[in-house]
From TrEMBL, chain A:
Pfam family, one: Fer2
Stated name of the protein: (2Fe-2S)-binding protein
Organism lineage: Bacteria, Bacillati, Actinomycetota, Actinomycetes, Micrococcales
InterPro entries: 2Fe-2S_ferredoxin-like_sf, 2Fe-2S_ferredoxin-type, Adrenodoxin-like, Adrenodoxin_Fe-S_BS, Beta-grasp_dom_sf
Domain of life (superkingdom): Bacteria
Cofactor: [2Fe-2S] cluster
Family stated for the protein in its record: Belongs to the adrenodoxin/putidaredoxin family.
Source organism of the structure: Arthrobacter hankyongi
Residue runs in coiled coils: none
UniProtKB/TrEMBL annotation, chain B:
Gene source species: Arthrobacter hankyongi
Lineage: Bacteria, Bacillati, Actinomycetota, Actinomycetes, Micrococcales
Key words of the record: FAD, Flavoprotein, Oxidoreductase
Pfam families in the record: Pyr_redox_2, Reductase_C
Annotated ranges, domain FAD/NAD(P)-binding: 9-309
Cofactor(s) needed: FAD
Protein name: FAD-dependent oxidoreductase
Reductase C-terminal domain sequence ranges: 329-412
Length: 106, 416
């Protein structure tokens, strides 16, 4: 199972196992990682699962496109070049060890 | 027995029930918490059932809201397949005893109702034929998903969100799809005429047929399976699959048994307390006042409300500070169309259309007494986010400027 390492807004690190095909958001919520609200459950409608992908991982996840890109413009926390909505990052074996920081406000 | 905390019983294992349990634990509540749900599954997301799950893009494990070990870690006792048959309250106290249909007794000193809603049944002959489906829970969706590959002609009864989402999934699979709506426009209960008209055109453009002002009088069948839908004008629409989405009814039977005030739903105040202040309720089963819509009791059937009201309910159970109420919002995905709704448009006296509906990217902003109350944003996330933010801080957007697509809505937000 690919692992995800999330830094929550309180500074704690959480390492969770993801199913291949599950999103980073789903995996974090299912394990009760604090900081991701995910009101819409992954429908790309609320911008409350905002994360910053660590620099070395961004090449593997890719950057936000189209609708996600527009939603991120209006997210509660600062938009950065490595901003993603974590519901739109699907886990694969290639993403094993993915590191993300959860945005301080959702 | 009188001093020890026997714990909290939450009846209903949907978004609201889970939300109450999580909020109690997050607030540091350490007494036992039991969630009792009548379904076989642990709490799961309902919205994808008529969207990604039905389309086969999501599996059942994806639907689950929490991993199994979450419940153990948080010491939340989850009972599935549990029907609460009876509740007896203690004299002069908030506590009591609930009994499940299998005879299990659950003692509690705090009680929360999150009983949800049931799909309204189509009251016509033939509604129990094979091939007639509702869409509310996992078994419904699983069954429908299994029938789609064999189906050719689909009739969707009801032009609300669930019906239109299911119609879009069926049509995307290339099936022949007819939507039958009793009212003269789609989404009549929840949207303004330009949105209704837009969705009619959008579904027709994608190859579905939309019949408005048409009521179903019977479902016809052969050898136990549905073969057609009979309308009041005598027309028969051939069908091998019928999907019924004609709204929901809040489940209020237990609340009534407890003597709580109920209208269409369980009546709660802005702290999610029922008419018995020791008992809270949250989610689709409730009718509530809302600060943005004074003087009314509203039923909000949405994930956002369930999650938000659950936090309020948990705070009330613990007599803690009340969380701020969020702006109601909703979404619907139909084929490649994303509709995002901020606020409640009911009671609008004016609206502004921003953008061109024919381009499938536009927003309708709703006003009452000159004040912004809601927006329906079609493929327009910036507009949605701007209106949600404006409503959240009690601000407005001047209707005279709102139609100008050359100016971003968020720059027009005006504090009042």
């Amino acid at each position: 199972m690919p692992k995800i390492i999330l830094r929550s807004p309180d500074g704690n690190l959480h390492t969770v196992d993801a199913r291949v095909g599950a999103s980073v958001m789903e995996t974090a919520v299912k394990h009760g990682v604090p900081g991701i609200v995910a009101e819409c459950g992954g429908a790309l409608s609320c911008a409350t699962c905002h994360v910053y992908v660590s620099g070395s991982c961004l090449e593997r996840t890719g950057t936000a496109e189209d609708f996600e890109d527009e939603m991120l413009d209006d997210a509660a926390a600062e938009r950065r070049p490595n901003s993603r909505l974590s519901c739109q990052i699907r886990m694969s074996d290639e993403l094993d060890g993915l590191e993300v920081e959860i945005a301080p406000e959702q | 027995m009188d001093t020890a905390e026997t714990g909290t019983l939450i009846i209903g294992a949907g978004e609201a029930g889970l939300g109450i349990a999580v909020a109690l634990r997050n607030a540091g509540y350490t007494a036992p918490v039991t969630i009792s749900g009548s379904e076989a599954d642990a709490p799961y997301q309902r919205p994808p059932l008529s969207k990604e799950f039905l389309a086969g893009e999501m599996d059942e494990e994806n639907l689950l809201l929490r991993a199994n070990n979450f419940y153990q870690d948080k010491e939340i006792r989850l009972l599935t397949n549990a029907h609460i048959e009876d509740i007896v309250l203690d004299d002069n106290a908030a506590g009591g005893t609930a009994t499940t249909s299998s005879g299990t007794e659950i003692r509690f000193d705090r009680l929360a109702l999150a009983t949800g809603a049931s799909p309204r049944r189509l009251p016509v002959p033939g509604a129990d034929l094979d091939g007639v489906c509702y869409l509310r829970d996992i078994p419904d969706a699983r069954r429908l998903r299994g029938l789609l590959p064999e189906a050719r002609r689909v009739v969707v009864v009801g032009g609300g969100y669930i019906g239109l989402e299911a119609a879009a999934v069926a049509r995307t699979r290339g099936l022949e799809v007819t939507v039958v709506e009793t009212f003269e426009r789609l989404l009549q209960r929840v949207a303004a005429p330009p949105i209704s008209e837009f969705f009619r055109a959008a579904h027709e453009k994608r190859g579905a047929r939309v019949l408005l002002g048409a009521s179903v009088t019977a479902l016809q069948g052969s050898a136990g399976s549905v073969t057609g839908v009979e309308l009041s004008d005598g027309t028969v629409l051939p069908a091998d699959l019928v999907i019924i989405g004609i709204g929901v009814e809040p489940r209020i039977e237990l609340a009534q048994k407890l003597g709580l005030d109920c209208g269409r739903g369980i009546i709660v105040d802005d702290a999610a307390r029922t008419s018995n202040p020791a008992i809270v309720a949250a989610g689709d089963c409730t009718m509530q006042p809302h600060p943005l819509y004074p003087g009314e009791l509203i039923c909000l059937e949405s994930v956002q409300n369930a999650a938000d009201q659950a936090k309020v309910a948990a705070a009330s159970l613990l007599d803690g500070p009340r969380p701020e109420r969020a702006v109601p919002w909703f979404w619907s995905n139909q084929a490649d169309i994303r509709l995002q709704i901020a606020g409640l448009s009911a009671g609008f006296d004016d609206y502004v259309i921003r953008g061109e509906p024919g381009s499938e990217q536009f927003t309708v902003l709703y006003y009452r007494g000159g004040r912004l109350i809601a927006a329906d944003a079609v493929n327009s996330p910036h507009d949605f986010m701007a209106v949600k933010r404006a409503l959240g801080k009690g601000a407005t957007i001047d209707p005279a400027d709102a139609a100008n697509v050359g100016v971003q809505l968020k720059t027009l937000i005006r504090e009042t």
